[in-house]
Amino acid sequence: DFGISKKIEGTISSSALKGTYMYIAPEIINGHKHDLTVDIYSLGIVLYRLLNQNRIPFMPKYPKEITQSDIREAVQKRFSEKYIEGPQYADDMLSQIILKACSFNPKYRYRSAMDFKKSLSNYLQNLKFNQRSKIVLNLRDNKK
Length: 144
Prior knowledge:
mainly alpha, single chain
């Protein structure tokens, strides 16, 4: 799906709809003009699923089984500007990054893939630093 926005920029009719429904940005479904941030949205949904037991936003929490009506309802909510909760296995900082990418309103998303990458890289750097700090603190505690 990535890069499809280059091929279908601008307002499109539903008959010209291209992309996977589970990952497609709301502005495409709603027939609004869009830009390359639709790809950032799709990537955000992919990351969301990876950190949420393979479930898109608004799906029932694992281990509840998913029905076709659950899928329809989840997709409908995603296209109607409802607030998305963070993925189940993401901390607050990572949730904020993913939710920014998945923002219903494109003007609140990352403006470029590079901006998105920088946020994720900074997150990983902080995570590594915090893990190193915890190890050092644990070592100090064990010496006492």
